[in-house]
Known about the structure:
Blueprint: E1 11-15, H1 44-56, E2 61-65, H2 75-83, E3 90-95, H3 100-110, E4 114-118, H4 124-130, H5 136-149, E5 154-160, H6 167-178, E6 182-187, E7 212-215, E8 220-222, E9 231-232, H7 233-236, H8 238-247
Parallel strand pairs: 1-2, 1-7, 2-3, 3-4, 4-5, 5-6
Antiparallel strand pairs: 7-8, 8-9
Helix pairs in contact: 2-3, 3-5
Bound molecules: iron/sulfur cluster.
Iron/sulfur cluster binds near residues 207, 224 and 253.
Amino acid sequence: MLDKFSRKINYLRISVTDRCNLRCRYCMPEEGVCSIPHKEIIRFEEIVEVVRFTIDKGIDKIRLTGGEPLVRKGIVNLVKELALLKGIKDLAMTTNGILLNEFAEPLAQAGLHRINISMDTIDPEKFRYLTRGGDINKVFEGIKAAQKAGLSPLKINCVVEGNSMTKDAEAVFNYCKSNGLEFRYISQMNLSEGIFQVVHGGTGGDCQHCNRLRLTSNGKFKPCLFSDLEYDIRELGIENAFEKALNGKPEKGTKNHNNCFNNIGG
Length: 266
Ligand code: SF4
């Protein structure tokens, strides 16, 4: 399907939780952010119903995000149900990799195709500082487990300050080269100030060719990451909320004062 700017929209990014097991400095404050009450978090059966509906509308690429999707209980079962739906050509996930060693094989068995892993440095001390306590060795183990499970391609999302390669990003790039991983770097974004760039090595931030919609962890379709517009599937119904989101897609992103990265999944 096309939006009103004749862009082909075939990609749905779904935030399955706003919870996370890290506290990355550019994503959330130390004390965390006020979590969405459990009863408002989107249920698996709602996600499956949304995906089934959107497949008929032309969505064939699904990415599960968070917060951290692997902290959501039953995530493997959700992947299993989505993988059974006919019409999904690309079923992917973005994770911080901390729990990946445990989940890689079950996710691959459940039908997940591929994974992006967030890693902004390979320096253990810097990683612990940036994530407020994360252990980089768990991420390395997770990457190995994902490679062993056959999840491919494996892409590394490296967030950099500004728009140029930093020493850390170069180290991550070299790590990717020597481990058969794909490297992408993402300039730090700021939702409320409307600061974003095109993802290097990806398609995010390229408004002219935007192909995506989002579903937040509390069940709202978002036409654009950098927009305040959102449409509640529970209030409006899936079809109505979807149509409004598709027709509400802006020509390009501006600012988003409503969301935090942890409930919209970047
Ligand atoms: S800012 Fe909005 S329009 Fe631009 S690429 Fe992102 S989601 Fe698409």
